[in-house]
Amino acid sequence: MLTRKSRLKDVYANPIGRDILDRAALQLNISKKVIANPFIRNLRLKTLPKLLKRRLSEGFVDTLLTLLNTEQDTAMSGDGKMQKAWWKEAVFYQIYPRSFKDSNGDGIGDLQGIISKLDYIKELGIDAIWLSPIYDSPNDDNGYDIRDYNKIMTEFGTMEDFEELVIEVHKRDMKLIMDLVVNHTSDEHEWYQKAVKEPESKYRDYYIFQDKPNNWTSFFSGSAWNYVEERQQYALHLFSKKQMDLNWENENLRQEIHEMVKTWLEKGVDGFRLDVINYISKRNGLPDGSEDIGRLMGYYGAEHYFYGPRLHEYLREMNEKVFRPYNAFSVGETPGTGLEMSKLLTADYRYELDMVFSFDHLETPGHTRFDEYQYDLGYLKSYMIYWMENYGNHCQPSLFYENHDNPRMISKINADPQYRIVLGKLLAVIQLTLRGTPFIYQGQELGMVNQDFHTIEELRDVESLNLYNKLCKTMGKKEAFAKILAGTRDHARTPMQWNNQQYAGFSDGEPWIRMDEDYKYCNVESQLQDEDSILHFYQELLAFRKEHSVIYYGEVCFTNKKEKDLFIYYRKDETETLCIEINLGSYNKKRKKCPQGVRLLSNYAELSPVFLRPYEASIWKQGNK
Ligand code: ISL
Ligand code: CA
């Protein structure tokens, strides 16, 4: 147990403490050396508020202690051989169904559209597909607000279409995982309707009701509480006002969720991506969030639910009752968890989740998604080195830059069009040669970039619209829109660009969200014809992985760790050694020496022995074996 007398080094020895200190160091741009300094290490927790000139309140230390003492375990050392698994060799492809392919001209992507493009996905070299939610939903948050878990969203098709999809995916020897959203449901879900209208029924505490709200805020702006007239109480929603948080304390509810998950496994799906799954256990009594943490993060209360007291228990229960009997794969979306917490959620001997998505690499420290800034690839390098060197062989990293919640990576790094192709390929090299399971987001394989939105009316996302309204209270409309434009999730949600015809071959009708002219130059059809395209490069790399199992299970070792812009690492096993050589900068970098061996793949056709050119990335094979 940690107490007010504990020292910073004790905090660092605690998994949550270590992640928080590492994260704070990143956020405040403080070197990790500060944490290693003996004077700092020996500071007692209770002295912190005074030392920091009361920029931290007294209450902060107690909040921190409660959080740290939530976790009593530490992860085992990660030495030893990796266990093999299909998902450690697979490359996943994420489909956002609304924007992938429309089959009936209503401007909305659908299941038949997906089926018509399975050959494309297979030919790309993909092994498994993750489908964003396709369940019945009023679409306040594009399907992440589920009204009926056992029904397909009418706009996307029918249950027959879904069953056909499963068969067609498997026929092509691929796997299919679904999105499982069980932290919350839509307020239109039958459970919530009954909880409100039939307060005597078993549904009465399927959700989180309180007589008084606390100070927690929603990720989509404003208070996290709705007043519910019928019950004269408040109900919790961490996301939109129509996404009501489920009460996992209730055993009946947990059982209903398990049964529902089983029905989908019975239909043959191979696993799940579990939406904000680390938020399901909320601290008893729902205490107010700390002012200090709230100010720092921009939202209040997260320390009471992002790694809650019963999280491991709930996951183990679901694993034992549902996932293991069906041999189902699971990847948890876990915002806010760092490396140590992720180990405790995914280590193979703990039987909770197979993998998690952690998010600290998506913004350069000191910035948030809604800041207009240039992402620093030097930071991506340091983040990857940290994970590759410390995550260990009991755990499998996930590797991704994009999903339906984030702007396009190329645009974040360097929006200058002259670099688009080399940069797109450089990102592919890193993602597809480090140790871990890659997740490619639709359009990433074309090098799709952020959209040229002009007005707030062109945006669709509830997060953007709510934030815009909030910002407009304190700043001008133009300024508010500029902020939204930097971070809006809609950049990733515009239609997939299939060809240069009207609506990019996505639909015969007007798409549900505006698209700019980029599809005229950047689309699947033209890239399939161009041997130097980003799409071809992905195809080559995906085929390359299948020939080099060193990428799945080999060691990874880094050199030149401190050298700016240079990212060099080796992948080694008994059979071969690959060297990956990358210039992370947009200038020529003088070469010290060229790796020995044969250059197998590169984003520059000709080799230059003198310079590494802007964003140059190559794979070399060493030795003669
Ligand atoms: O909490 C955040 C910080 O603002 C976000 O990163 C948030 O946790 C993340 O966007 C959660 O995403 C998932 O759940 C949401 C949904 O809107 C997203 O599309 C989904 O990926 C609610 O279901
Ligand atoms: Ca449609």
From TrEMBL:
Keyword Hydrolase: yes
Organism (species): Anaerocolumna cellulosilytica
GO BP terms in the entry: oligosaccharide catabolic process
Protein name per its UniProtKB record: Oligo-1,6-glucosidase
SMART domains: Aamy
Pfam families from the UniProt entry: Alpha-amylase (PF00128)
GO molecular function annotation: alpha-amylase activity
UniProt keywords, alphabetically: Glycosidase, Hydrolase
Entry's family note: Belongs to the glycosyl hydrolase 13 family.
InterPro entries given in the database record: GH, GH13_cat_dom, Glyco_hydro_b, O16G_dom_2
Keyword Glycoprotein: no
Coiled coil regions, renumbered to chain: none
